[in-house]
Amino acid sequence: MIIIAITGASGTIYGVRILEALSEKKETALLVTNTASKILEYETGLKLDEIKELADHYFDVHDLEAPISSGSFNFEAMIIAPCSMKTLAAIAQGYADNIITRAADVSLKEKRKLILVPRETPLRNVHLENMLKVSREGGIILPAMPGFYHKPENIDDMVNFIAGKALDILGVENRLFRRWTGHDTR
């Protein structure tokens, strides 16, 4: 099972696209903060109930009794996209006050893949320090910084680049973006 969490930062489409790509390939669990639900609707026009249907499981953000809150529950990996600076800070400090930060804590302590897609700019020193803390514990920081060598033609192309990179880290085959094959000499 792969856990996809969407937190209260701009860029909720990243989490949705990753969930869409995984929905037919892997068992998934979806977690969405209250703020993320509002941002999702504002940015994409999607309602939470619409994306819940893409996941195999949905857990309320305040449900600390959900199975994924225990290290004894076996899940493969967790992706938080987008990852708000509040969520990043909680993870970096070991402050597990909701199911997202608790599952992230479990990911780190059990040495499972944890991918954070931070979405903030510019970054303060504390943001960078929190990213470094999580990275030193084994978390993977995948900033929402799309490449442009694939010559994106629209926003979907840029979103797909980030979603595809996250799937690459998970070892999930995808064709969401055109890969670099070397300098085009045409």
UniProtKB/TrEMBL annotation:
Enzyme class: transferase
Transmembrane segments annotated in the record for this chain: none
Positions annotated to bind dimethylallyl phosphate: Y149, K165
Binding of FMN, residues: G8, A9, S10, T33, S84, M85, K86, T87, R119
UniProt keyword Lyase, yes or no: no
GO MF terms held by the record: carboxy-lyase activity; flavin prenyltransferase activity
InterPro entries referenced in this protein's UniProt entry, alphabetically: Flavin_trans-like, Flavoprotein, UbiX-like
Domain of life of the organism encoding this protein: Archaea
Pfam assignment, any one: Flavoprotein
EC number: 2.5.1.129
Reaction catalyzed: dimethylallyl phosphate + FMNH2 = prenylated FMNH2 + phosphate
Keywords, ordered alphabetically: Flavoprotein, FMN, Prenyltransferase, Transferase
Ranges where the Flavoprotein domain occurs: 2-169
Glycoprotein keyword on record: no
PANTHER family from the UniProt entry: FLAVIN PRENYLTRANSFERASE, FLAVIN PRENYLTRANSFERASE PAD1, MITOCHONDRIAL
Protein family (similarity comment): Belongs to the UbiX/PAD1 family.
Function: Flavin prenyltransferase that catalyzes the synthesis of the prenylated FMN cofactor (prenyl-FMN) for 4-hydroxy-3-polyprenylbenzoic acid decarboxylase UbiD. The prenyltransferase is metal-independent and links a dimethylallyl moiety from dimethylallyl monophosphate (DMAP) to the flavin N5 and C6 atoms of FMN.
Protein name from the UniProt record: Flavin prenyltransferase UbiX
Organism: Methanothermobacter tenebrarum
